[in-house]
Write the structure tokens for this entry.
Amino acid sequence: MKWMNTIIRYRLWIGLVLLALAIFVNYQTSFWPSFIIYLVAVILIVGHFLFGPMRLIQSYMEEGDMEGAKKVVEGIKFPGLLIKPMRSVYYTIQGNLAMVNQDLDAAEKHMKKSLDLGGGSLTKQAEGPNKLQLGMIALQKGNQKEAEAYIRQAIRAGLPDKENQAAAYLQLCSIMMNKREFRAAKEYFRKAKSFKATTPQIVDQIKQIEKYITRMPG
């Protein structure tokens, strides 16, 4: 809804204008005629700092506009004031943006901050994907032991869709292949294929692994 996004984008300024109007009405008349204006102004201003523009950021990311999402994120000057679930989402988005820029250290730092917040339904929903991301980061850094631990934790925490689940099992398959645990590698590969992922990158990975996994012992 565009009108809702417009309000979220400008609610601080709308709130400040309404606050000034409430003070003017209060001065000209009395408190009670200005009460509703005060109330709306306070709701808008407090909402800006407690909830932030997460809806706007989500819209940009769904459209693949990472620059737009980055600008909105950079506009959040006091993330510590966000309520805990929103702060968790904020750090998750920061981590995703860092991953896009291949800044693995920053991505890891933000993802861990998101997980450390704990609690809340929004945070719980992000736990699995965040741990999967941390596993991917550990793999890229060459830390297979840590990667395996995070990916297993991600699967236990729950992943939101078949694409993420397929990606998790594919990574476990690769780790098992490197450890020469071929039977486990084949089992994880079978599970990855069973999700019938459609993301081109995952489909390509499956095709590449399939070329030689059947020739493995075990």
